[in-house]
């Protein structure tokens, strides 16, 4: 069957450019389907999925969109409708890739639609505003989206823009020819394990991965800096993993304090929700990273560690540790699957060592004691007499996970 590529665009402003993209995809042997997210009517603009259908899927009508002057509301309706249509197409096996083309508004809307689709669905955005400060991170967020900066405005079919569009068409069509992502082949018993990691616990993460891979597991790492670990939660819900080692769940405490690694309100919930085994540790949980522009005098007075000239980790206060322990317990207690918590007693990062200005195992104990009091009786909290980067601790994590699979 011919691969189908969904084109998300605004035909009221990008009609000729979108049709050129459509034709380029046709020439490459794929079936293009144009989804029009326009919020204005234009004569002669014919899409496979017109804005009337999009507005209806978004819970409104196109007539209401045309009559309304509330741009933000209209954008939300059309985006919601396009997300619903794209997701239905994917579920029905009628979508093999998605591409968008546009400026700021078009890029924001199209990439929102892309992020409604699961990891592994080819996604490409041709954007004239990809390089604007802060826009690329907004377009991509936690999605596996490829962003192509057109450099020139998407306006008129100059030879240069035609070349940009043809390269974009070639890229998305090539991606659509790659087999869909799957962590396990049918009949293969090779569990896929997600693991969070950061540079201060990288040696431990590498050790765990090597130990588990030697036993036949797949191990997929996520940088726990607030973006990839949020993406991990979504991918767990999509069924891509069989278990989790949450070595660096600091995004939970960061959400409480508004830190730079804030991973959102549902961090550390997906594994419990779907019921897969999870092993939780405390890598970096005893530090916070508020933006330096929001430092208080109290922040400045705390012990801190400079990872580099850009990143400073400040010790979490006892009160912050107690609150974080309560949130950890609340999330873990709702888990439908087995849970173990493994805590190192001699430091939660590679710089938490005797002689370091931030090394304070007694203060870290505040979190441990509060957690042990709050977790359900069925959740075992294991304390290991080692630093988190020692091989014995990596062994404890790997063994704990494998026991949960027996």
CATH fold name of the largest domain: Rossmann fold
Q: What's the number of domains?
A: 2
Q: What's the mean pLDDT score? A: 94
Please write the CATH class name of the largest domain. Answer: Alpha Beta
Strand content: 15-25%
- Rg measurement, Å: 24 Å
Largest sheet: 6 strands, parallel
Number of extended strands? 14
Number of helices: 15
Look at the structure and name the CATH superfamily of the largest domain: Uncharacterised protein family UPF0261, NC domain
Separation, N- and C-terminal Cα atoms: 42 Å
Q: Strands across the major sheet, in which order?
A: 7-6-8-9-13-14
Structural class computed from helices and strand pairing: alpha/beta
